[in-house]
Structures are given as structure tokens and as C-alpha cells.
Design goal:
The complex is a heterodimer of chains A (about 120) and B (about 170). Chain A has one helix and nine strands, in the order E-H-E-E-E-E-E-E-E-E. Chain A is mainly beta and about 120 residues long. At the A-B interface, loops of A face helix 2 and helix 5 of B.
Chain lengths: ~120, ~170
């Protein structure tokens, strides 16, 4: 089951300020001490990192730095951030182990994947 | 404003060759870039009205979404700088060329329309990208305009790739 939470820029800034979200680079996988939020930056029509590994219960926050709106949409259609405008963010929690290919539904050449490992 | 004679040849499938004989200033560049975006949005609306092909319709929707976003950013910059973009010969030629092209499109339907629209989009983005990358960005003197054009070019290059895939997928004969 995935939980979709669209964060506004202000909300996301508050999370950053509270130290709940790591700065730009994704965190390395550590001994799992609770759910983490990992970041994917969308810039110049690329997801970065293109492959992100996380643990069950962790969340991914996509932030769009391009002028054009983007999405992160599961290839099989199980989850979708919806449209993310410039400087907007969207968050999804991953509770199921597996490898999930995704793309931008507006720009299908943009592809990446999420790998969810068991806790 | 300092102006250096220069020639741009805009040769695309969308219209007759368009010529601008002089280096353009920031306000002319802004006007032309905005106009080119608006024209592509208008092509896209026509495609949504005529085409039943999913790939073509998806592309058209993306053109409306992305070019609208770019032009909103351009509008915000214009407001921030408190300037008025300057109409010019190249903008006018783009407008008249696009009107002629739309008239051609409106006589088409089905696969003929899809191929004509897709091919035009590929050619349009190729020439726009060349012009923005090789002329407008080097010519721009206002840093914010140069930055916006650079960001926009990333978007337009993605469109070119998308258009290329659309043309290949349609298997147009000409």
C-alpha cells in the first residue's frame, strides 16, 4: 500500500527546517531505525538518482526543479504523484518490497526506478 | 541599443523560410520566444480538436502544459523587470507562417493530419532549439532572460526528442 502526500513548498521547507528531510543527496541505507524520507530531484528532465534503494515503510519525496511540470508514475499504474509543478514536491510511502520502474507521464523518455527492500 | 547585422535563417517544415537580418535585443528575443510558444500551443489545440491518435493527443497536451509553464515564467520575468516585449519582424513572420500552416492542417484529417502535425512539431522544435541555443542565449544581455532561455531550451530539447519518437511511431511515409 502506498500513501500519497503532496507537500507544498512551504510544508517541505518546514520539514527541512525540522531536520526531518535530508538535504539534496539521498541517504545511504543504514540499519533501519525507523522510516526515512529519501529525495529524488527532478532537474533537466532527469530523475536523480535514477535508481533509489530504500526500506519498507520509507518514503520518497520528488522535487521538480524544471519549468515544465513532471510526474513520477509507476509503469504498472499502481502509484502516481500526479503533476508536480516547478519547485513543487510530492511524497509517496513504499510498504511493499520490490522493484518499481516509473516514468514521467508527460515526458515518457524520463525513466527511473525505486527498489524497496525488506526491513 | 547596439545592434550588429546578423542573419538568422529559420527554415522549417512549418512555414516558409524566415529571415531576421539583425541581431535582436532582449525585448525582441523575449517577444519572439513567447510568440513561438504561443504558436505551438495553438497547434496543439488544433491537434486535440482533430486527432484521435493517443500519441499525438498526449504530445499535444504536453505542449500546452509545458509551453504554458514556460510562458508563465516569462510573464513573471517581464513583470519583475517592468518591461514590454518588443514586436519584431521575426515574430510577425512566425505568426503569419503559422497561420498558413494551420490552414493546411485544417484541410487534413486522420493519419494525414497526424503525420503533418508530428512532422511539423519535429521541424519546429529543431529550428527553435537551434535559434534559442545558438542565437538568443548568446545575444541575451539580461542575466535573468539568459537563464530563463537556458531552462526553456532544456524543455524544448525534450520536446524535440518526444516529437522524434512520435514521428517514428506514426510510421509516416513522407
Amino acid at each position: 500500500m502506498y500513501v500519497l502526500n503532496l507537500a507544498t513548498r512551504r510544508q517541505f521547507g518546514l520539514l527541512l527546517g525540522a531536520g526531518l528531510v535530508s538535504p539534496l543527496a539521498p541517504k545511504p541505507l543504514l540499519a533501519h531505525d525507523g522510516p526515512h524520507r529519501l529525495e529524488v530531484e527532478i532537474s533537466k528532465f532527469r530523475f536523480s538518482p535514477a535508481t533509489l534503494t530504500l526500506r519498507q515503510g520509507d518514503s520518497v519525496i520528488w522535487t521538480n526543479r524544471d519549468i515544465a511540470p513532471h510526474s513520477a508514475t509507476h509503469t504498472d499504474g499502481d502509484w502516481d504523484t500526479g503533476e508536480i509543478p516547478k519547485d513543487g514536491s510530492a511524497e509517496i510511502r513504499f510498504d511493499t518490497v520490490g522493484k518499481f520502474a516509473y516514468f514521467c507521464v508527460f515526458h515518457p523518455a524520463m525513466k527511473a526506478e525505486i527498489i524497496v527492500e525488506s526491513q | 541599443m547596439f545592434r550588429t547585422p546578423f542573419v538568422i535563417a529559420l527554415i522549417s517544415t512549418m512555414a516558409s523560410p524566415l529571415m531576421a537580418e539583425e541581431k535582436m535585443n532582449d525585448l525582441e528575443i523575449a517577444h519572439t520566444a513567447y510568440t513561438a510558444g504561443q504558436l505551438d500551443i495553438r497547434y496543439a489545440h488544433l491537434a486535440l480538436a482533430v486527432s484521435e491518435n493517443e500519441a499525438v493527443r498526449d504530445f499535444a497536451e504536453t505542449m500546452i502544459r509545458d509551453h504554458t509553464a514556460v510562458n508563465v515564467a516569462a510573464g513573471a520575468l517581464i513583470g519583475e523587470l517592468n518591461v514590454t516585449p518588443q514586436d519584431n519582424a521575426l515574430s510577425q513572420a512566425l505568426v503569419s507562417g503559422a497561420a498558413a500552416k494551420r490552414a493546411e492542417f485544417m484541410a487534413l484529417s486522420g493519419e494525414a493530419f497526424d503525420c503533418a502535425y508530428a512532422t511539423n512539431e519535429l521541424g519546429y522544435h529543431q529550428i527553435v532549439n537551434q535559434t534559442v541555443g545558438e542565437k538568443f542565449i548568446p545575444w541575451a544581455t539580461v542575466p535573468q532572460l539568459k537563464a530563463l532561455l537556458s531552462d526553456a531550451l532544456v524543455t524544448f530539447k525534450a520536446h524535440e526528442g518526444h516529437a522524434e519518437a512520435m514521428v517514428a511511431g506514426l510510421k509516416c511515409t513522407s
